[in-house]
Write a structure and sequence with these properties.
Keywords: Coiled coil. Residues 97-133, 165-192 form a coiled coil. Pfam families: Hemerythrin, PAS_10. This protein is α+β, with helices and mostly antiparallel strands. The chain has 3 domains: 6-77; 89-233, Four Helix Bundle (Hemerythrin (Met), subunit A) (Up-down Bundle); 279-380, PAS domain (Beta-Lactamase, 2-Layer Sandwich). The protein is built from 13 helices and 7 strands. The protein has helices at residues 6-20, 25-36, 41-53, 58-77, 89-112, 120-129, 134-149, 158-180, 186-218, 221-230, 269-278, 320-335, 377-380, and strands spanning 259-262, 265-268, 282-287, 292-295, 340-347, 350-360, 366-375. α3 runs antiparallel to α4. It is globular and about 75 Å long.
Length: 391
Amino acid sequence: MVDIDREKIESLKEYVQGVVDNGDGKALYLKYKEDIETVTPQECFEIFTSKLEKGYTPKDVLKILDKVINVFHKPLSNYSWKKPKEDSFLYYLIKENEALTKKLEEIKKIILNKEVEIKKDELLVRVKKLEEFNQHYLKKENILFPYLEKKMDRFHGLTIMWSLHDEARKNIKRVENLLESENMSVEEFNKEIGSLFFTLLGIVKKEKLILFPASMEVISDEEWEDMHAQSMDYGFPFIQRPALEKKEKLDLYGLEATKFKTNTGELNFEQMMLLLNALPVDLTFVDENNKVRFFTRPKDRIFPRSPAVIGRDVENCHPSESVDVVNKIIEAFKDGSKDSARFWIDLKGRKILIQYFALKNSKDEYKGVLEVSQDITGIRELEGERRLLEW
């Protein structure tokens, strides 16, 4: 574990606050030069997380993030850290970043050759391909981030990077929409594609300089192995998928011969899990302390979940922009003013229904919330009746 110099941290916090307050950049640098020139990845987490603790939102921090990291760039680039083992979780994240950079170089070549208008269709295909990189972000959000959050409070600042992921997703969609429009302005395209490159490559840089070195310093070899096994439920964008076989799904539940017995019947543990996973819905249970305690694994899960999220605070399972909604639902369930909430969204051409149900015991005490997500596209299309068997 890396020791943190508290006096140095306070000094660097003052520097960043000066940047937030639009202070003179050169004067600030000279005042805090000694500490800036020795800043470490772990210290960066301490600094940026402190902004969130003072009430700044992730979006507030993003306004000055790149400016600060550019100042920190030299010491972070020279920082010595143990590189990941080959064929490990982090090894593949790095390989994905290298492959993404190559994809962006191919797009950049078309733009520099001033072939945007004549290769508009090719550009659309290439930009749509970038959507696959979402799997990289999902692995970070659902596997890496939970492990780090459990290590120490400074990693709560990861919500800032999650906001960057969301910005990348929006950037890709904006460029796609431009390329799909009949009267695309090349000038507007250049502006949006520049923003997309800045966001995607910016995330790569922040991972390389801060996230990955800090992760290697706090996560054990055994934990990296667990993360790699969990990553088999996700894609590996732009690189060859590792040969490691996924564990049998039921093995992850630690099945035993335990009986579940009520006045409506009896099930052993395996039967219970087979039953729950056969339901055409995603189920996630969050307990009365707002901790994720359980999720099911249906054949086609709509929203990804990994064992790493077990014990994670539900706030950390959502992008910062939607946390207020999550908290509002939970508070209404706790005070008894509401017992359910539902939303529906369009996702990859499907209509998804998302419902939340308050869980109360026989004494009407709040015991948590059940999230149920269901693809209702086919249900909405039903007409008439079907009384005969049709496979």
